[in-house]
Amino acid sequence: MCHIPVYHHRQISETISGRVQIDHLSENEFGSLLLPLFYVGFKRVMDFLPAVILLPFLLPVLLAVALLIKRDSPGPVFFMQPRVGYRGRSFNMFMFRSMYHYMSGEDFTVSGNDPRITRLGRILRRYRLDELPQLFNVLRGEMSFIGPRPESESLSEWYEQDVPFFSYRHVVRPGISGWAQVEQGYAAEVEGMKRKLQYDFYYIKHCSLWLDVLIVLKTVRILCTGFGSR
Q: Between the CA of residue 159 and those of 37, 103, 212, 214, 222, what are the distances in Å?
């Protein structure tokens, strides 16, 4: 009556933390986390046009990185891995190879000192240069510039068993960068993924042009500092 707004404590918690508490939501509430169709179409246009504009400027950088990879260690320049994307469909995500070609191991980086990572690969990962080829995934409509990071098929199967509501993140196109990436950084273990999923659901629930712009600005900071890399 006195024009003093009153908010639910969960709304305040989300605003402060930037995360949606999964334990406090029901199946029906998760089912309502859908982006407006007009914004889905708008995001696709805003992904495609900048990708087309950026491609000619990035081609010299892509070529230079490719030559450095060939000089650094034997093996292919690109690394392609099946990832689970929009609406649960699989696609091949392109990356510059940052690990030794002849070494095998887990589907995720086990630590900051993973012996499989090449000398050049550590630099590429720190400043996210290994992600540049994903521009082609954006052009193909498999990814967006902003959205939840896509996980490999094997990790997705693991998370779907141990992380409640994990598959709901596939309601939007996966992104090169995202809210979880700029707020938390790299996560692969189950506990880390549970927290990461809270950030992903916050993005899905509050997705807007302004949130996308904020993520872009935070991504620029990460490119300069190397925050959250592994």
A: 28, 25, 26, 28, 26
Nearest 5°: phi and psi at 112? -70, -15
Q: What is the CA radius of gyration of the chain?
A: 18
Q: What's the predicted TM-score (pTM) here?
A: 0.83
- According to DSSP, residue 88 is labeled G
HSE-up of 161 (CA within 13 Å, CB side)?
A: 5
* Burial call 34-73: b when 16+ CB within 10 Å, e when fewer: ebeeeebeebeebbeeebeeeeeeeeeebeebbeebeebb
What is the token pair recorded at 192? 């880390």
Instruction: Return d(Cα 201, Cα 146) in angstroms, integer.
Output: 13
Mean pLDDT of the chain: 86
Question: For residue 24, what pLDDT band results from cuts at 50, 70 and 90?
Answer: low
